Amino acid sequence: MQVGAFVNKETNEEFTSCIFTDASGDRCFVAFSSKMGPLSPKQIAEMKDDLQVVELESGNYVLCKRSANSWEDVEL
């Protein structure tokens, strides 16, 4: 995962986003939750156990804090 600064081509507004790159080079952009705001790479690393990526109905992805009632992993 990387964090980068970008410019919206329609509004010229600057924004920060996370970018996940898979082995084939495909990239997935993940926005920061508006409630949380942008985080530095150091902050993300420190909070990694308290963060999750959520897919919105729009198909976009957002990095946000885990809620108390979030899903739990089950090892099978």
Explained architecture:
The chain is mainly β and 76 residues long. It has one domain (2-65). Helix content is 8%, strand content 39%. It contains one helix and five strands, in the order βββαββ. Strands 1-2-3-5-4 form a five-stranded mixed beta sheet, with no helix packed on it. It is globular. The two termini are 26 Å apart. The mean pLDDT is 91.
Order of helices and strands: EEEHEE
General shape: globular
Whole-number tally of structural domains: 1
Average pLDDT confidence is: 91
- CA-CA gap between termini: 26 Å
* Strand percent estimate: 35-45%
Uncertain stretches of 5 or more adjacent residues:
none
Major β-sheet profile: 5 strands, mixed
Q: Structural class of the secondary elements?
A: mainly beta
Approximately how much helix is present in the residues?
under 10%
Number of helices: 1
Largest sheet: spatial strand order: 1-2-3-5-4
Question: What does the radius of gyration come to?
Answer: 14 Å
* Oligomerization category of the chains in this entry: single chain
User: How many extended strands?
Assistant: 5
